[in-house]
Every structure is written in structure tokens, then in C-alpha cells.
Amino acid sequence: MADITQTRVQATTRTTTRKRIRWDHIADHAILIAGALLMLVPVYMVFATSSWDPITIHREGMQFGFGDRLAENYDAALFEYGGFTDSVNGMTMLANSLILGLGFAIGKIIVGMMAAYAIVYFRLKFATLAFWMIFTTLLLPLEVRILPSYEVISWMNLGNTYTGLIVPLIASATATFFFRQFFRSVPEELIEAARIDGAGPVKFFIDILVPLSKTMIAAMFIIMFVFGWNQYLWPTLITTDESLFTLVRGIRQIVQSYADGSETPDYGQAAALAIIAMTPPVLIVVFFQSWFVKGLTESDK
Amino acid sequence: MKRAAFGHIGFPILLLLPQLAIIAIFFYWPAAYAVESSFYLQDPFGFGETFVGFDNYTRLTNSTNYINALNFTVVFTLLVTFFSLGIALLLAVKADKVIRGAKTYRTLLMWVYAIAPPVAGLIGVMLFDQSRGTITQVLASFGYDFRLGVNYWDTAAAMITVSVWKQIPVNFIFFLSGLQAIPRSVREAAMIDNRSGTSRFWDITFPLLAPTGFFLLIINITYSLFDTFGIVDTIVKGEPGNNPLTLVYRVYVDGFRGGDLGGSSAQSVVLMILVLILTIVQFRFLERRIHYT
Known about the structure:
The complex is a heterodimer of chains A (301) and B (293). By secondary structure, chain A is mostly helical. Chain A folds into two domains: 2-72; 90-299, Orthogonal Bundle (MetI-like fold), CATH 1.10.3720. Helix content of chain A is 75%, strand content 0%. Chain A is built from 15 helices and no strands. The N and C termini of chain A lie far apart (65 Å). Chain B has 293 residues and is an all-alpha fold. Chain B has a single domain, classed as MetI-like (MetI-like fold), CATH 1.10.3720. Chain B contains twelve helices and two strands. Chain B has helices spanning 10-37, 55-62, 64-97, 102-110, 117-128, 134-141, 152-180, 184-193, 197-227, 229-235, 247-257, 261-292, and strands at 40-42, 49-51. In chain B, a hairpin with a 6-residue loop joins strand 1 and strand 2 (49-51). Chain B is globular and about 75 Å long. At the A-B interface, helix 1, helix 2, helix 4, helix 5 and helix 6 of A face helix 1, helix 3, helix 4, helix 5 and helix 7 of B.
């Protein structure tokens, strides 16, 4: 009898604990779902809005459901020429964003890897000095020295050129620092073995170090591409020629047409352009997630 | 430097040359130029400049615009840092705990990282628009009249909300990787010693996350100071007016709109000093961080 009561008591406690734990789990999931919705809903609304005609949006604001203008709005955002000079459309801006993102990422990785290789693998007297000179650049973001940088660029006649757009952004040492950390963790036996086999510095770099750094390069590339693609202040200052506008730079024009209020801006097209501007970097981050997280958590340290 | 390093001289210099040339021209030159021009007053019509010593700096301390921007930046930075760190920490702790759907949650919570600040700002403008904004309409049904671009603190609230939203993913990623770095043995020991989830969090997890938290604190301050430019610019629609502005935005407005190279440069120098202080703090801490791991 006593035994039976005990088992029953145990059974009830077990079910209650199980129930309690389950409630716990539900609360956890509820918080996570709320967080996910907080991230998703605003962007979803922009996407839904991009399928409506300007009059509906002007009257009712952003939309939750889909309208029938999806194809037209994206077609107009991508292919219809606009701006003051009618010389720019979504495709031009898309191409410019790609040039900026790729040019920045590739340029930075090449320059950074070369410098890091020189600092880590050579007996240079001024290696420490060079390192500190490069390292100091990590301290001051471009935003801080924006006006003098602009003056230097205009003095060099590099305004409204891809060089003026990309190269000053490369003038910080995140990639150098990142690759320096990585090269230092490469086992010393490798270079010893390579030297015994008679490999010179160029051969060692290209045949051993670069293949070894593949994951690091991929991780860095994703971070840098997104960073370059999303640049705003510098492109705004340096490109006044509309044919050099990037998508993110183009967003400024949209917002200003909101501010002017002289005519009803085409909200549907604006929303479509915003979606186009965010799609490539978002896809890259989502699909190459593990590389992205690796690059982010290891480059900022 | 590696023990078995190469002994060449010319080749490594060749390797370093591109990096050094770029930073010399696009970093050291502008930085030095900023310091120099902060001591000069430019003629508005482009006829030379006169040395004015620290006048540009004293002018800043007397400028209401600048003091306002300074005050707002402090409030803005504190609020953005607090909320984005707090929300991200909560989400990271939960994402670390759940088993089912962990990967999906991770993706859903971090993808906003890839959205550019001005695009986030544009979404903010659409949500908070004075007449059509979705959130404005929700607030109106509660009887609050939200006036973006008219009411100072309404505009500030929109700016802060968007900036927090945009920064949650970065903090989430770092907190989650910090949590996952806590050894299994420590977690299991804590589970045996302390059954309450809340006190286990504050006694074990939180102190172990402190290094990540401190590092993120610096990252978030830098983010609020500099990277929010695109958000501020889109939310005020490029019209400074009486809107709340951050210090970096002031540098831009005074330098490019006002044509005040000296004053803008002095502001740049003040920001440089601020960043230097932050970096020194970060470094002192980074040395300690090595002890932790």
C-alpha cells in the first residue's frame, strides 16, 4: 500500500516537473519567435509594400498583404532611368554596388595578405614600426576624418572615379591584422620544411600559405563585401555623378524625394529599390553563415 | 615574426608597399590635415586662411548646436548600447538553450546584419512617417500623436529604435559564440550545484560572459558614434533643422553644408581623441581577457 502511494507520488512529481520544463521551453521559444518576428516583420512589410501602386501606399501607408504591381515596380526600379540627368537606373546602381563591394573586398584582402606575410615571415628591422603604423589605422574610422579625406581626394582629382570611391576605404588595417593573427598560428614546421625543400618566399606564399588560408579568405571576403556594399557616407560625398551611384547611395535620393514632397514619390518603386539593395548582402550572409560568423568573431578581436 | 623567417630585404618591402602607400595617402595625410586645419580659420570665399590657435575649439564649447549634439550623442549612445545589448543577450541565452530549431533561430536573428544603415533608416521613415507610418498609426490609436521630424524626442525615439534593431544581430552573434565557448564541464557542474535557471545565469553564465560583454560595449559605443550616420541621415531626411543630431553628423553638416573647414576639423580632432581613449580602455581590457581564456 505504502509502495503504491509512493510510486503514485513519484509519478505525479515526475509529470509536474515534466510539465514545468515544457512550459519553460514554450517560454524560450516564444521569446525567440518574438525576436525573429521583430527582425522579419519590418522587412516583410517593405517587401509587401513594394507590390502596390503609389496611391494606395500614399493613402494607407505600408501594406501587410500583396498587391498586383510586384512585377511592374521591380521592372521600373531596375530598368527605368531616373535621377536629374536620366542617366541612372537600378541596374547601373546594382553594377556599381557590385564593383564597390568586390573591389573593396578583393583589394583589401590582397593588400592585407601581402602586408601580413611581410610582417610575419620576414626578418625586417622595421617590421614592428610598419606594424604599428598599419595598426594605428584601426583606431580612426573614415567618418572621423571625412572632410580632410574628401579634400585630399578632390586635390588628387579622384572625385567621381572608382579609384576615389574604393581605395580610401581600403586604408584601414582590419584585413592585415586578421591575416597576421592567422599566419602566426600556422605551425612553424611548415616553413622549415618548405625551406629545406628549397622553396623561396614567393613559392611558399602561393603554394602553401594561400591554400592554407582558404577558409580565412572566404570569411574575410564575406565580411568585407557586405561592408563595402553597405557604404554610405563616403559614396555620398565622392560620387556626385549619377552614373556612379550605388544602390545604398540611391536610397538617399529616395528619402530626399520624400522630404521635398513636391510630387507623390513612387513609394512602391522606392520599396522595391530598398529590397534590391538589401538582397545580395543578405543572401551572402545567410548562405555562407558559418564563414560569416567566423570572419566576424575573429576579425574584431 | 617566425623563427625560421626569410632573410630577404627587397621582397618584403615590395609586399608592404601597397598597404603603406595607401595608409600614408588616405589615412595619415588626411588625419594630419585635420589636425592642422583645426588651428586655422578659412576664408568663406576661398581667400586663404589665418592661424587662430585654439579658437576653433573654444568656438565649439560656446556653440549651442555642438553642445546639443554632444548631449544627444551621449543619451543616444547609452540607450542604443543598453537596449541592443540587453535584447541580444536575452535572445542569445535562449538560442543557446533550445535544441529544436536552434539553427533556424540563429539565422533568423542575424541576417539583419547585412542590411545597410540607410536602408534600415528608410524602413524607419516608412514605419514612423508622420501621417502614414504604421507605428504612427498604432500610436495614434492609443491617443499619442507621433510627429517624426517635428517633435525632437519623437525623432530621437525613431532613430534609437532603428539603431537598436540594426545592432541586435552583431551583439547576438558575439554573445552566442561567447556562450558556446563556455566549457561543457562548467555548465554541468553549475547544473548540479544550482537548479534555478535565473540564479545560475547570474552566478555562472553572466560573469563568464563579461569579457564578451565588455568587448561588445566598446563595439556598440563605436557603432552608435560612427556607423549610425546613415540612419540619422535618412531619418532626418538630410535636413538637420531642429532635429537631434549625433557628433559625426555635426562634423558632416558643419564641414560640407556650412563650409566651416576649421570648425569641422576641430570636431574631427575631438572625436579622434575620444576614439583613442576608447581604444586604450579596450586594450587594457584585452590584456586581461587573455587571462580569462
